Amino acid sequence: MYSFEPSEEQKMLVDAINRYAVNDLRKKARDAEEEGHLPNDLIEKGWELGLLQASIPEAYGGFGEHSALTGVLAGEELAYGDFAGALGVLAPALFALPILLCGTEQQKQTHLPPIAEGEWQPYSAAFIEPFLDFDPNEMRTKAEKQNSHYRITGEKIYVPYADGAKQFLVYANLEGKTQAFIVDPASNGVTIVERQKLLGINALPVYKIKFEDVLIPSENRLGGEEGHEFAPIIDSMRLAMAAMALGISRAAFEYSRDYAKDRDVFGVKVAQKQAIAFMLAEMATEIEAIRLLTWEAAWKFDQHKEDASKEAYLAHTGAADMAMMVTDRAVQILGGHGYIREHPVELYMRNGRGIAMLTGIGMI
Amino acid sequence: MIEFEMPKPIAQQSYVLQTVAENMMRPVSRYFDEHEHEIPWDYINFMHMAMRATGAGSLAPPERKEEDEAKKEEKKSRPPIAYQMLAFMLEMLSWGDVGMYLCTPGGGLGAAAVEAAGTPEQKRKFLARFAEEKPTFAAMAMTEPHCGSDTSAIRTTAVLDKTTNEWVLNGEKIFVTAGQKSLEESNGFVVVWATIDPSAGRAGIRSFVVEAGTPGVKVTKLEHKLGIRASDTASIVLQDARVPFENILGSPEIQTETTKGFKGAMATFDATRPLVAATGIGVARAALELLKEMASAQGFQVRYGLPRTKLTNFEREIIDMEVLLQSAWLLVIKSVWMADNRKPNPLEASMAKLRAGDVVTKITQRAVELMGPLGYSRDYLLEKWFRDAKITDIYEGTGQINRLVVARNILGYSGRELR
Questions:
Q1: Which residue of B320, B411, B416, B417 is the best one to mutate when testing the A interface, meaning the one whose CB has the most A CBs within 10 A?
Q2: Predicted confidence band of residue B280 (pLDDT cuts 50, 70, 90)
Q3: What's the predicted TM-score (pTM) here?
């Protein structure tokens, strides 16, 4: 059957996140961006909504099952408040979800309960690399087998909360396959180079890290000796970006719509001009179309459909274009005021640009 | 629960219809494109026979009949999918050939209008004919020589002759899809839009069922078109054409305070726009599939999952088209799912229609370009679909009219506030 109606549980969750997104994340978003800092109590409050905890089964300290569909609903709603805040709240998922999806029983037993049962803690992942043709399937960071260890060498950027992280996953190229390794940040050869400043999401602390001959015990390879499939991880990362793009775009659309209904021009409201009204109509249509594509991709992920990976890729591709189209127009609709930092649309536009290249910085 | 599993009856229907499309439509697609105004009777007769055999007499969703309690209970537990079935049917037939699809007997937009705005008696009276022995057609006559999208400017008049209790219609209608087949080639009907009070503007607009054989109704012209040439586009003149009083769809009273009657008539579009969108999606899918097939034969493959910087231009184009096509199709499915579940869907219906219009024109235009000299050749159907596609963005509300509908909905504006 087809159905476009979220379950009662999903509706309740989305409502709860919506209140947090609007009353907390969004209210603090501007200051957080300018100060380059997400307050701890803000993140902790988001953590207490239990999004990640609800993805982890009871056996590992959580209270639910992972669902990408619930994840994209939640991801949209969080990013509707603030993209950086959404990534901050969900940072531990970068570590926990790959272990949940691909880890050995031992890895799940060891690593999931401390995350699911505790307060928000800085867990993270090192994924993105500083190359214009960065390709998750052909990473330049190398892992080589050496007796009972793997030796990791390379450079990563945009690693959230790397400074002070409890643990992170490091993705590296092992004989042509992308594999993740559980790494203690205190390991020899791990250097946190610097905190990075970006076009947007400046509230989220992200770091450049160097790995020089870092030796990782064999049992810390995700999935153990045999390793793991990469598809579920990259799919979940793409779905996260698509979902958050929806949240950013919806926020930008609504702000510019409300502004256009309020602003007088030539004796009418600016929204009464077809030039503006049609832009808004196209923005709303674009968002709805990409939302359905993202939902379908997430549903296919949950159902283990054969073309789930392809559709997650398509959803992310479409979402990146949507985010740029919608946020750019939101700025345009506000005209000169759109360019001023008193309004949030310029921030939405800077954040929206990130959707295309930030795969690996969030998971749902 | 959000779900995207194609229901079994739809999957079975799609399987059968794909066979029809491949065997009865594609092989003669080019022929009927090049022989405008010839009627594809083989396809029509086959479809009529098949639809009668399966009990599907009309393209309009079947009226809910009185059923025994057990059956009712069983039906309640199964979600309704009639509009979804219809959307999938139209998508697949249009994938075969959208011009020929428009020749499918069973009532099309005319029946849809009766279904959407008619009383139970009217539905019984007018829709029964589609299950009869001969293929029967119906059409919608709205556009006039001086007005298209602005339907409130309609000049065709309907005056009640109280002595005979008949409506007397006078005026000229153009761009009536299947008008000839409805009036001259079968015992069908045309739903004619007219004003019962020219001074009342929109409040005076009503639609009337005008049956084949009504004296004073004449098909005066068949258009020569860019595409969908298998489908007749007729001009109809009504000269003192008399129809029974009960052929009016909606209230005969003028509600000067409101435009309720007009809005009721416009509600037809909530049902038909997603269906027209589905036909566009079918053409777009046909073009994209053929493009990929032809390109593959010449050594062009598409790799998914790569960063854009590593993709070829050809791959980027195909991937973008797949995003557009699937996201537009999902809008269509959502809007018919809403119709099936009796959720008001004017916003979603217009979104689906405008998106499908955009997507099918873009995909067919890009497909012709990407195939280079082959795309431009009449050896292949790509150039035909390029021509067929454009009508999707025009009829049943142009892309611009649908943008207006969407804009009014999202802004909460009336027609007066956003003209």
A1: B411
A2: very high
A3: 0.94
